[in-house]
Amino acid sequence: MPTTVIRRSRADDLDALVELGGEYCAADGHDFDPATVRAGFAGVVDDDAHGFVLVAEEATDDEGGTIVGYAVVSWGWSIEIGGLDVVLDEIYVRPQGRGIGGRLLAATTCRAADVKRIFLETERPNARARSWYAEAGFEADDSIWMSKELT
């Protein structure tokens, strides 16, 4: 029976994270540009300056570990709450339904102990994700996230 460990990502996890990032994009209906995803992970995979990545690594006694999930958290600051906040940028696990995503989500809140608030975004039609986050204590609010590409 495999054992799953939640740990901080390392530079040698990058290829596996990019592969999982491609699966995340496909599952969420987003375009996948491997170079962009690689650059995104490379900026936080082993450097806490902008955030952190936690990985779920599954291993058995007779073989090495396989990364089966990840959570990406980015640092922020809020005048409104008077301190550090973060954005849960992405969380993905394959396959789902074994409790690994919940362990990753819980680990992000433990890892971010000095953080006063965690934001996340999910698409309105994704009722399953919204329900899962609500079960973990997240609440929908009235704010509307807006974005503008700066390229």
Explain how this protein is built.
With 151 residues, this protein is α+β, with helices and mostly antiparallel strands. The chain has a single domain, classed as Aminopeptidase. The chain is 30% helix and 31% strand. The chain has helices spanning 14-28, 34-42, 100-111, 127-135; strands spanning 3-8, 51-60, 63-78, 83-93, 117-120. The protein has a five-stranded mixed sheet, with helices on both faces. Strand 3 and strand 4 form a beta hairpin. It starts with a strand and ends in a 16-residue tail after the last helix. The model has no long low-confidence stretch (mean pLDDT 90).
Task: For the structure shown, list the relevant keywords.
single chain, 151 residues, alpha+beta, Aminopeptidase, 5-stranded mixed sheet, 4 helices, globular
